[in-house]
Structures are given as structure tokens and as C-alpha cells.
Amino acid sequence: MRPVLEVADIFRRHGDAFRAAQGNRLSQAQRRVMAAIEACRTAVLGGHVEQCEDCGEVRVAYNSCRNRHCPKCQGLARAQWLADRRAELLPVPYFHLVFTVPAPLAAIALQNKAVVYDILFKAAAETVRTIGADPKYLGAETGMIAILHSWGQTLTHHPHVHCIVPGGGLAPDGRWVACRPGFFLPVHVLSRLYRRLFLERLLDAFDAGKLNFFGDLAELAEPAAFARRLAPLRRIAWVVYAKRPFGKAEQVLDYLGRYTHRVAIANSRLVAFDNDHVAFSWKDYRQNSATKIMKLKPDEFIRRFLLHTLPDGFHRIRHFGFMANRHRAAKLALCRELLDREQTDPNQGRPPPADSEVQTWVEVPACPDCGGVMRIIERFRHRFSRSNPRTSPFRCDTS
Asked: 175: which DSSP letter?
């Protein structure tokens, strides 16, 4: 069922005025995101006619834009991604770690997304790998899935990575080493190493000329000013948060399903909008997650939404350690073999059963009247040519 309000509705009503006001300050990537969301599931992108095999109900379905920033286009991508991950889960507790950056670095990241977001991923992964390999803590090779989020509840820029980490790892001698029950790695140790690794990588990027500064940050192009900006950050505590471990593999999938393909704001959080304001719900974590309503001018809402446009080709879900892409299948097979030797319940090590509802929606959409199978009987093309996908405003971006 279509939500009462959508981000697309706001873009369609206020997008032209926003584009005109921003001029060349709006990047091509941001313009493509706006155009894709505006066109999503409309006749602009074409579609098909489908008919129910049982009752004969006919309906028209328009194509989705498949842009990874679109609130409407994440369901199928999420279902397929989860289906791929389902078979990779291990029969061990999984931990949830969050690595954040201080506000002064978030401002630098906003002007250097590709470089600084990459540093955020690599510093977090190296931190977990290094502390995990230390015999004092675990003494094993760890693995993890890391997911970049760049937003806070009020759509402000707040880059951080969520990491899902199996509770154990592969020892150098080939054994599986389990972590302590309910405890993975000490947060204060992770925080200190993460701070050092992040700042070292950031300074290396600056020395290599990979960082650009403009506007209020223009002075940071000078080495002395950049050093002054980093100096106090070496003395403060950086937030690394560890949540309680997941109890079962199904809980891991449920969590991943909610976080991996999330966008800056879901349509379900929109409350109202008109020519003057956009109202949406948000959780105030400083007041026990109390739900509040925020009102923003339409241009400010659009500006905040577009803060979270990712660079073209940037991967916001990454795998590290024994879950890295280049050797994931072999190492997960080894982990499962080692863990199977320790299992007393023959069913405990198996992946959770497939979610039939998700598979049904992905493969054969149901008739809204009788629940029967809808089959495509006709397709019609979009109105615009995609002969040059690099310049088309409707270019798909699914990475």
C-alpha cells in the first residue's frame, strides 16, 4: 500500500524551486537522485500491465528508478541481499558495533565523502582485526559486515558505520576461537586504536593531496591550520558503541534487513507537508528515545536529504576479515566445519529457513483482490531515451 506521503511528493512540488535556488551548488549526483525519485513508479520510466491468473484482475505497474537513495526502491534489493546472506550465517552469537566520528571531522567528511567515508570503513575494520588478533583479547582472525549511515534522526550529517561481527574467529593454528559469553572486545581499547588509525589515515590523505576544502573550511588547506584542527581530536574520547549480542541467526537477519538498505528517511516518518513546512517524526535518544515531530522548510528538508547522496560507485556495505569477498566462501565453509564439530544439536548450525513471504513478493506478486498470481501481459517503454546512461537524470545507481 502506498504511504499517504512520500519524499517523491515533496520533490515533485518543491524540487524545481530548490534546483533554481541552488544553481551550480547542486552536484550532478544530487540532481540525478532528485530526478530518479521524482520519476520513480510513474509513466516516465515505463512499466507493464499484469493480470491475475485466477480472477482476471488487471492493474498497471510502473517501473521503479532503482536508485539506492530512493525510499521506495529498497525492498526488493534488501530481500535479495538477505537471501544471499542467509546461507552465510554462522551458529554463533553476533555482536553489533558502531563507530562514529567527532563533529569537526564530520564537516571535513561532508566535503570529501569518498575519501573520508573510505577511511571510516578501513579504520573500523582494522581496529576490530587488530584487537581481535591480540591473544590478550581473542587471538583470532575476525570477520564483519560494515554498513555506512551518514544521517542522524533529524537528517543532519552524522557519518558512522554499523558493524555486525560474529562472536569468535579463526586462530592461526586453524581452530575456531569463541569469544567470552556476552562480550566481544573491550570498547575503550577499540576506541583508542580506532582514533589513532583514523587520524593517521586522514593525515596521510591530506599529505597526498586527496582532501579538498572550500567555504568555511577553506583555511584547512594550509598544513598548519589542518594540524590545529586535528590536535584536540587526539585528546578526546571517540565513541565506539557495542550493543548486546543477537541471540539467534534470525535476529541477525532481522537487524540486517532494517539497516543495510535504509535511506536517510523512510516515507513512513513523514507526517505532513505543504508550501511552508515538511513535518516528520524523529526519536530523541537523549530523552529515552521519545518520539517528536520536527518541522522544516521544504528547501531545508530537501537540502538535508541530499546531504546523504553518496559518490558514484561508492559501496556502503562492505565485508572484512574472513567475510571479505575474495575468500568468503572458503573461510566460511571452514568456520562452519569447525563449529559443526562442536554442535550437539544437528539443526543448530543450519541457516534459518527461507522467508516464504519475501520470496513470494520477489518472485510472483500477489493479486490485491484474491491473492492469486499476477502475470505480465504487456510492457510499455519509458518516455525518455537512456542511450547515454552516464548523463541521463534517471540513471540507475544500485551499488
From this structure: -
Q: Is the pLDDT of residue 185 over 50?
A: yes
Write out pLDDT tens, residues 225-237: 999 999 999 999 9
The answer to whether residue 324 scores a pLDDT higher than 60 is yes
203 Cβ contact partners less than 8 Å away, ≥ 6 residues apart: 230
For residue 136, give Cα distances in angstroms to 96, 177, 184, 219, 330.
21, 13, 12, 43, 27
Could you give the angle at the alpha carbon of 65 between the alpha carbons of 60 and 70, nearest 5°? 115
88-264+307-340 CATH fold: Replication Protein E1; Chain: A, (3.40.1310)
Q: Under a CB-based contact definition with an 8 Å cutoff, are residues 284 and 153 in contact? A: yes
**What stretch(es) of the chain map to CATH 3.40.1310?**
88-264+307-340
Rg of the chain over CA atoms, in angstroms? 23
> Is residue 88 within 8 Å of 323, Cβ to Cβ?
yes
Collapsed DSSP state (helix, strand, coil) of residue 69:
coil
d(CA 88, CA 357): 20
Check: CB of residue 149 under 8 Å from CB of residue 159: yes
Residue 383's CB: how many other CB atoms inside 10 A? 12
Buried b (16+ CB within 10 A) or exposed e, 322-332: bbeeeeeeebb
Q: Tell me phi and psi for residue 226, to 5 degrees.
A: -65, -40
For residues 380 and 45, the answer to whether their CB atoms sit within 8 Å is no
The span from the CA of 99 to the CA of 135, in Å, is 23
DSSP state of 210: -
Query: What tens digit of pLDDT does each residue of 100-152 get?
Result: 999 999 999 999 999 999 999 999 999 999 999 999 999 999 999 999 999 99
pLDDT of residue 256: 76
- Cβ(358)–Cβ(83) below 8 Å: yes
Q: Distance between CA atoms of 8 and 399, rounded to whole angstroms?
A: 21
Per-position DSSP letters for 121-147, written without gaps between them: HHHHHHHHHHHHHSTTTT-SB-EEEEE
* Integer CA distances (angstroms), 41 to 38, 209, 375, in order: 9, 42, 18
pTM beyond 0.70: the answer is yes
Mean of pLDDT over the chain: 87
The rounded distance, in Å, linking the Cα atoms of 5 and 212 is 38
